[in-house]
């Protein structure tokens, strides 16, 4: 583990130019370093109250040179992000200025912080648990508003409180078992049927929480959507419509798209990589053959296939080939060019597509007018989430948490089996201890040093 008896410093704002840049210092020498570098009136920073902001000048004590005008923010332990004394120098956001200020802090006794070390210290000092610390990284990396809300919820402790409640349920069951061992004369023999029902209920709650992880992962990590179909059905137009910008070249000439075009979008709060592909068909053109091969490869890597058909022309052998390529995976079928189809013909096309779609949703849409686009986005979001829109307050977004919940549920299932066989109570406690340890890994009570370091090494420096 890293030591807490030294002082760390880092640039806390992203690289490059900006209006403001922040150098953060935390540890026992933070106030002394501020006293050395920052001048503002007659009162030294170490004499200021916590949560104070002061305007002043940063100086190089070795030369007397004024480095920058800055704001100093001071937070005294334990009421700071890390739980230690923290000072932040808000300077002009030029790289040269920030590097110079950081260099001065290091010269005055700080060392350069490791990735995630400020948040690691917050965890080690009890300012947050491990799940909350991971949520800090999720907040920084959130690509949509929905992902941001989930990360904020986790950082505020919603998941931690639910995991803590489940741990207390397991502790209560374990206490009942151990009481029957240690105080059998007073409490009587273990009530195996009641315990089995209790464990089954707890396991169901653990499994329900783990079941939110599929949707949670989608909101956190996003999905890849491959737009496939025969040439000239409007795949590139549909990509542009989803992006709300003209990204892909659109012409009436079949086969215009030869290579993959991949762009980021947000669909119902889900981060999406939308991939426009070459039209899938048999061709003698060697360049187009490469494009078709890449389209099939993109489809293999995709989480969801958006199969595009022409609402005017109806079903063709080319549509059959594209549909066969997308068979066996999550898919949404889009009948494009609905604005050009007569109403009676459109209804027949929709019915035909539903017969062939194998249960995949079919949406009539116009990439040109935007009609049906909201319904298409809703269908894509449902396909990405496999229909599992999370309604619970606590949602699991982290693979590590989901795996810990699965192990907890497995241990509880073993405890149930032991209880059903009316085996000695001390065997039941072994499985219950396994469930407790697995749940404790989520919030950090039982996480190993190796796990903790693996988590924080993925953070950025300065956070």
Task: Describe the protein in words.
The chain has 463 residues and is of the alpha/beta class. It folds into 3 domains: 8-129, Gyrase A, domain 2 (2-Layer Sandwich); 137-212 and 394-443, Four Helix Bundle (Hemerythrin (Met), subunit A); 231-384, P-loop containing nucleotide triphosphate hydrolases (Rossmann fold, 3-Layer(aba) Sandwich), CATH 3.40.50.300. Helix content is 47%, strand content 17%. It has helices spanning 30-37, 95-107, 117-124, 130-141, 145-155, 158-182, 184-187, 192-211, 213-221, 235-243, 286-301, 317-325, 343-356, 373-384, 399-420, 425-443, 449-456, and strands spanning 8-11, 18-26, 38-39, 52-59, 66-75, 86-93, 111-112, 223-228, 261-267, 270-276, 304-310, 331-336, 362-364. The strands form 2 sheets. The chain has a 7-stranded mixed β-sheet. A hairpin with a 6-residue loop joins strand 4 (52-59) and strand 5. The two termini are 18 Å apart.
């Amino acid at each position: 583990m890293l030591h807490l008896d030294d002082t760390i410093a880092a640039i806390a704002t992203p690289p490059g130019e900006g209006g403001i840049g922040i150098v953060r210092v935390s540890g026992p020498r933070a106030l002394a370093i501020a006293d050395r570098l920052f001048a503002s009136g007659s009162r030294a920073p170490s004499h200021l109250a916590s949560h104070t902001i002061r305007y002043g000048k940063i100086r190089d004590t070795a030369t007397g040179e004024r480095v920058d005008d800055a704001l100093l923010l001071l937070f005294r332990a334990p009421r700071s992000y890390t739980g230690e004394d923290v000072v932040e120098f808000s300077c002009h956001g030029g790289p040269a200025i920030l590097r110079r200020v950081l260099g001065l802090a290091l010269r005055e006794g700080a060392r350069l912080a490791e990735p995630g070390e400020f948040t690691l210290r917050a965890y080690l000092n009890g300012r947050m648990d491990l799940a909350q610390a991971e949520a800090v990284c999720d907040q920084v990396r959130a690509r949509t508003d929905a992902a941001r809300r989930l990360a904020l919820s986790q950082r505020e402790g919603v998941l931690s409180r639910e995991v803590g409640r489940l741990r207390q349920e397991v502790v209560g069951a374990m206490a009942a078992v151990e009481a029957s061992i240690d105080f059998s004369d007073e409490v009587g023999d273990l009530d195996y049927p009641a315990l089995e029902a209790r464990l089954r209920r707890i396991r169901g709650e653990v499994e329900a929480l783990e079941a939110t992880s599929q949707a949670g992962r989608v909101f956190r990590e996003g999905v890849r959507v491959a737009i496939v179909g025969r040439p000239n059905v409007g795949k590139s137009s549909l990509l542009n419509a989803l992006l709300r910008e003209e990204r892909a070249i659109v012409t009436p000439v079949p086969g215009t798209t030869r290579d993959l075009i991949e762009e980021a979008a947000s669909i119902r709060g889900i981060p999406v990589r939308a991939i426009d592909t070459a039209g899938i068909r048999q061709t003698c053109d060697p360049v187009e053959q490469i494009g078709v091969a890449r389209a099939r490869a993109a489809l293999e890597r995709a989480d969801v296939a958006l199969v595009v058909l022409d609402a005017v022309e109806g079903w063709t052998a080319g549509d059959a080939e594209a549909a066969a390529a997308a068979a066996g995976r999550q898919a949404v079928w889009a009948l494009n060019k609905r604005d050009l189809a007569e109403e009676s013909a459109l209804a027949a096309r929709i019915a035909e597509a539903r017969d062939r779609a194998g249960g995949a949703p079919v949406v009539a849409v116009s990439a040109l007018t935007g009609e049906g686009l909201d319904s298409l986005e809703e269908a894509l979001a449902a396909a990405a989430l496999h229909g599992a829109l999370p309604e619970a307050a606590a949602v699991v977004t982290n693979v590590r948490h989901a795996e810990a919940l699965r192990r907890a549920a497995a241990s509880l299932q073993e405890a149930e089996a032991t209880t059903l066989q009316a085996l000695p109570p001390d065997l039941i406690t072994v499985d219950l201890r396994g469930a407790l340890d697995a749940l404790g890994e989520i919030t950090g009570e039982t996480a190993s040093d190796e796990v903790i370091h693996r988590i924080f090494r993925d953070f950025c420096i300065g956070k």
